[in-house]
């Protein structure tokens, strides 16, 4: 290849021309290096895409094989030679060998570390429970005398051991007898004033309804299953009756507290939001397979407000629902996932993003590569590097977790901000190289699309890096939904939203849901149909006026 310039032409060039020529060559070389770097990134991503497709192909092939075997294969299972299927219900008997000698203690080598049992741990665990039975072991008769000298034994000490009994559900009948009086002279009649009943004409009491609510909304036990359990204890209580009790008590006694909690929630400057599916059968003009939605709004431990969770049932997932719920009162930060409906909130509401959602997408991209990549190869992938960068941001959050909002803000500016800026600069270099149809491409583009929202947690120490608080708030609801599958009526769905709000908020504030529900419904019953606001404020889950029995000693 002939040179661009001859030797004679180069000798005749001035110093300025030579500098211009060198500058042009330098720029050309820099462009070549940038092009090469992009090509290398594109090649790496294509390799990851190939592995991803191979993984998906193998997975789909396995699913097809299993489906064909299930449809056309033999119903009995075959095992490889030498493999014995263990009977789940006979494991101890099958594995036990009465002829096996006990181990020689001299040959047993204990591990180098043995956890030291804390002194008084058993007594501490049992301190919350009442001792209802005392069994004493004493010497009687001739055993009280020493066989050697015939002297009567003297008690020198007592050894006390405590054990814990469990008593299943027990029902007790409370009988109310009202004496009616008459004046023997003029015949005037008088009767004492009775305490109001929970529900007119019903055998329900606060403790019974609280037990039903606790079983369904805290422990995820459907009413039909509770009906069968009650029948085992000789109580005939139908699902329909229990549902009516829940709806009436939620509407009459719990909804006023819900409304007060909402007032407090909207005064906060820092909220989280999320939504999840629920199916309501009796929604008019919709198909049976149509999904309805349960929305959740909450304050977290950093918000500086009382911790609470509020559920709101809505027919659709439309963006106007959070606008209506937040109304004109809320003004501040709103942490959520990337759902577009939240990004159309009014300008007075600043939306912040969820780093966990971005991390999840990179984790999915990394998962499909684990089948064919070694650990060292995985470390070179884009997904792994992204996970590592996000992991450092979470490590910083872990270290500043117990600091004040002001201290968290300063540490984030000092430590997290440079790392987050570098992370997004790196993602921008990959933007033109990734395949949008691949998992890694989706992860990169999703994260870049959410860049503005994902950076906002740096602005204020009260903010969280993610929206996991909202996901945790929905966990009990999701567990219950897997059991009861759907809500029958709109009123039932609304009642569920109210009860979930009360029970989840109670647990966030360290309360026992059953005890708290029993206390609240009993107090609201006695306050009458038009309770004073000041009296209801003392019943809120964060009130310092709640009895000690409502508080849990254990933090779970």
TrEMBL record:
**The Transposase IS66 zinc-finger binding domain, residue ranges:** 143-187
Q: Which residues form a coiled coil?
A: 22-56
Keyword Coiled coil included in the entry's annotation: yes
Q: Name one Pfam family in it.
A: LZ_Tnp_IS66
Alphabetic keyword roster: Coiled coil
**Which part of the chain is the Transposase TnpC homeodomain domain?**
60-122
What sequence ranges are listed for the domain Transposase IS66 central? 202-495
- Which residues belong to the signal peptide in this entry? none
Annotated region Disordered: the residues are: 93-125
Tell me which PANTHER family the record gives.
Answer: BLL1576 PROTEIN, PTHR33678:SF2
Q: What is this protein called?
A: Transposase
């Amino acid at each position: 290849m002939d040179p661009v310039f001859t030797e004679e032409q180069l000798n005749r060039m001035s110093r300025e021309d030579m500098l211009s020529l060198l500058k042009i060559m330098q720029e050309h070389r820099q462009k070549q290096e940038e092009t090469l770097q992009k090509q290398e990134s594109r090649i790496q991503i294509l390799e990851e895409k190939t592995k991803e497709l191979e993984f998906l192909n193998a997975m789909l092939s396995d699913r097809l094989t299993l489906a064909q075997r299930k449809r056309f294969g033999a119903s009995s299972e075959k095992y490889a030679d030498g493999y014995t299927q263990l009977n789940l219900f006979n494991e101890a008997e099958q594995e036990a060998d009465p002829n096996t000698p006990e181990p020689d203690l001299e040959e047993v080598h204990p591990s180098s570390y043995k956890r030291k049992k804390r002194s008084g741990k058993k007594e501490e665990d049992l301190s919350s429970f009442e001792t209802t039975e005392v069994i004493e072991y004493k010497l009687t008769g001739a055993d009280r005398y020493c066989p050697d000298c015939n002297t009567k034994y003297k008690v020198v000490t007592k050894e006390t051991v405590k054990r814990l009994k469990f008593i299943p559900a027990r029902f007790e009948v409370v009988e109310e007898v009202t004496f009616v009086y008459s004046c023997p002279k003029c015949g005037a009649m008088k009767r004492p004033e009775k305490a109001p009943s929970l529900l007119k004409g019903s055998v329900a009491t606060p403790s019974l309804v609280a037990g039903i609510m606790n079983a369904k909304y805290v422990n995820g036990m459907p009413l039909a299953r509770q009906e069968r359990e009650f029948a085992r204890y000789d109580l005939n209580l139908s699902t329909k009756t229990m549902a009516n009790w829940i709806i009436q008590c939620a509407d009459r006694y719990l909804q006023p507290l819900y409304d007060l909690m909402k007032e407090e929630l909207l005064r906060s400057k820092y909220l989280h939001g999320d939504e999840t599916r629920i199916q309501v059968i009796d929604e008019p003009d919709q198909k049976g397979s149509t999904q309805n939605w349960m929305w959740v709004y909450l304050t977290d431990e950093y918000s500086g407000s009382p911790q609470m969770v509020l559920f709101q049932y809505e027919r659709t997932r439309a963006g106007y629902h959070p606008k209506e719920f937040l109304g004109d009162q809320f003004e501040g930060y709103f942490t959520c996932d990337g759902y577009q409906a939240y990004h159309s909130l009014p300008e007075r509401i600043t939306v912040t993003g969820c780093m966990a959602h971005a991390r999840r997408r990179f984790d999915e991209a990394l998962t499909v590569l684990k089948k064919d990549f070694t650990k060292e190869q995985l470390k070179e992938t884009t997904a792994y590097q992204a996970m590592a960068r996000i992991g450092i941001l979470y490590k910083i959050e872990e270290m500043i977790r117990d600091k004040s909002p002001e201290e968290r803000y300063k540490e984030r500016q000092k430590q997290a901000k440079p790392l987050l800026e570098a992370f997004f600069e790196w993602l921008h270099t990959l933007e033109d190289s990734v395949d949008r149809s691949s998992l890694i491409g989706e992860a990169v583009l999703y994260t870049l699309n959410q860049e503005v929202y994902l950076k906002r947690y740096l602005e204020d120490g009260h903010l969280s890096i993610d929206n996991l608080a909202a996901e945790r708030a929905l966990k009990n609801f999701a567990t219950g939904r897997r059991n009861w599958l759907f809500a029958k009526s709109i009123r039932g769905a609304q009642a569920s939203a109210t009860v979930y709000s009360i029970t989840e908020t109670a647990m966030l504030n360290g309360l026992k849901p059953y005890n708290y529900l029993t206390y609240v419904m009993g107090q609201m019953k006695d306050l009458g149909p038009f309770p004073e606001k000041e009296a209801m404020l003392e019943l809120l889950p964060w009130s310092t006026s709640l009895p000690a029995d409502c508080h849990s000693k254990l933090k779970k």
